[in-house]
Amino acid sequence: MSFEKSLLLGGFLAVAAVLPAQAQQKACPNPNALGVSRVVEIDTTGGPGFGFQHYKSYDFLEPKEVVLTFDDGPQKFHTEAVLAALAEHCTKAIFFSIGKMALGFPEIVRKVVAEGHTVGTHTWSHQNLRKKKTEAEAVDEIERGISAVKRAAGSPISPFFRFPELADSPETLKHLQSRNIAMFSTDIDSFDFKFRNSEHTVKAVIDRLQKLGKGIVLMHDIQPSTAKAIPALLVALKQNGYKIVQMKAKGPVQSLPEFDTAIEANVKGLSAAGNERPVSSVVKTVTEGGQSKLGGEPPMEATGPAAALPSPSASADARADQSGDQRNRTWFWQK
Ligand SMILES: [Zn+2]
Questions:
Q1: Residues spanned by the domain of 299
Q2: 296-316 as b/e: b if 16+ CB within 10 A
């Protein structure tokens, strides 16, 4: 039986309900913004598939409607540049994050969530699951990825999943269906990782959209050329009359306790809640080189309003620490 047929026979129902495309549009200061034309809510019961390259059951996009998706992140600078470009257009995307990457850059995953984007997962370490020797190994990659991205986000994430290299298998499809996780292929593969050229990425996406008329677009937020391409791509989409649809899940993904435990060794002191205050409001330099920084007062007495103000030097220290930390984290997944 083909994968597609097994999907169709799964008997699941995906409900794509139209939600009001809320505050982001009325608050958008950019008069030429793409915005979000509608938000669809996906009932992931039974593991529906989206993206006609592999899964053809749910044709929910209207002509000229586009879903933007970004794989393989988060990555310092590049994901942030993509976020900035999306924010400039008050528009939203789905980020399929890798578990290892997410634990390396939890602050970026949290930013993606805070800015209202949809977060799905893309395995623990980006391995081709079709090449795994056993089903247990493939499941481990999927589930570790979910536990890690959820842990990094510090808040619920969506039961949305994309296979590395889009390589599904009967076993992994069955697993995702049993876990009520929607799987994503693509309609428009930008091949941005291959050409690594921002002009080419914009042209490839627009040309393909002109042919198909609509679709789910696959890009990679870890690619510098893609990060560079997004501002121009968003302008081109607007100019050509395309509208952005945001896909959200009806409910969050439930991670499995055994994998939540398994990834703890990789967490390294990250708080679970995702609601910690900025470093500068918690840690403040009160003496430096033996000199008090509080106008001669002993540090222990610094409990008034001045003590609550963030210290510029503490922020600078925090930034320096982060960039040092950043160097230590570059071993995480690189395509
Ligand atoms: Zn990937």
A1: 280-328
A2: eeeeeebeeeeeeebbeebbe
Instruction: Provide CB contacts within 8 A for 192, sequence distance 6+.
Output: 201, 204, 219, 220, 223, 225, 226, 229
pLDDT tens figures, 32-62: 999 999 999 999 999 999 999 999 989 999 9
Q: Which residue's entry shows tokens 């007495």? A: 301
pTM to 2 decimals?
A: 0.78
**Same structural domain for residues 291 and 318?**
yes
Is residue 86 over pLDDT 60?
Answer: yes
Q: Are residues 223 and 319 in the same domain?
A: no
What is the 141 CA–ligand 1 centroid distance (Å)? 13
Measure 185 CA to ligand 1 centroid, in angstroms. 11
71 noted as active-site residue? yes
Distance CA 95, CA 51 (A): 15
For residues 199-210, average pLDDT: 97
Tokens at 214, concatenated: 């609509």
Considering the candidates 71, 187, 189, 221, report the single residue annotated as catalytic. Answer: 71
Tell me, yes or no, whether 106 and 17 share the same domain: yes
Share the mean pLDDT of the chain. 83
